[in-house]
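Input chain follows. Return structure tokens only.
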Amino acid sequence: MNHFFTRTAYLFYYARKLDRKKFVKFLKHARKVSGHSAVYLLADSIRSVYRYNIGWIDYFLFRFFEKSPAERSRWAGTGYKYEYDLVMNPKDRRNILENKIEFYEAYRPFVRHATCSIGDLETGNEKSVKVLENPTGKIVIKDALGQCGWEVEVVKSSDFSRDGLIRYMKSRKFNLAEEYIIQHPEMARLSDSGVNTVRIITQVNGDHQPEIFGARLRVSVNNHVDNMASDNIAAAIDIPTGRVTGPGVFSDITRSDVTQHPVTGVMLDGFRIPMWEECIDLVKRAASLHPENRSIGWDVVITTAGPQLLEGNHNWCKILWQVPVKTGLKQVLDEYLAESFI
């Protein structure tokens, strides 16, 4: 009964946050593909929220309209992942991950590029000077609490004085400025429209040791960010070898998978992430620095000087984790939960 009330509350939340245009688009596609009526799909999607603890839009993203009950039960959806995060990354400990200004201070040993807050710009301290005078000639400005790359802009340093940049950031409600990162040439070969990152997911296990249970490549497509939510592609990475396995996928279920980048033509399957061993070492050391947050999705950017952290996510994306491999992976999290309660 408690599950019923909890998931009813979740359903109201999903409805309030729903991108209705996307929902209708996905509903029409699912109706065409499955042959089921819109009424059936709506009813089935709501049932699935209750039965499988998924988000309403997850029903379409996970293609539940094509899956059996047994297959559906393997997927970790929004409700399940929210509850998992509460256990693994307590709310009173996760601010160093949610707030990028605090993140850069907490994980400074693993961050190479210059960063500063709007407060640093106002005082004109050394941190702000490094950002303003960084050698790339570009500055990334954003909201420190922003998600999914939606509150990010790239501007030219030459277009702004310090005071002008402060005024512009305030007008856009931005509070964080960063040096633009020049990515490794091999990553730029994939796509140079934006910095392409690798999402590596770590879990501090019952023996207090960091483990890696997921790695995904995120690639920009005519975009200055690489998030799937911004119409970019993602692909699975084989953890032992650092090679991409399989096609690139979109979060838009109406789009087909791609075997090569749609703009550059670079083949995705078999592409090897440069400096992969260093990436693995980096995230394991980072995961050990603040182990009170036990499950983190690290966004790693690779430069010629080596890999560095761009973000750490307590609410790392279950879509990015599961959709590229086209199977539900909830059992992995079930095992970590069971371990945490022993």
